[in-house]
Amino acid sequence: xxxxxxxxxxxxxxxxxxxxxxxxxxxxxxxxxxxxxxxxxxxxxxxxxxxxxxxxxxxxxxxxxxxxxxxxxxxxxxxxxxxxxxxxxxxxxxxxxxxxx
Length: 101
Prior knowledge:
about 100 residues; about 15% helix
């Protein structure tokens, strides 16, 4: 399975190109990342938006880069084709503090 190029953003991390996008799944958000051409998907579940946030915190390229690097350390194999998606969950500690409006 490949990420759609339409609606995806590109990022370059340590010599490799990746595509990423954010999905709103109703109760939670997920960030989906894949090596530019194909390979094992990385699903990052953003599981618990704090009630203190008036809207979801921004998903920035620096956060995506951090997720790529941490997931590689945890065993994600972005060049493997045909593997089940690699799944990780993050919480509000990954986002800078935001102020209520």
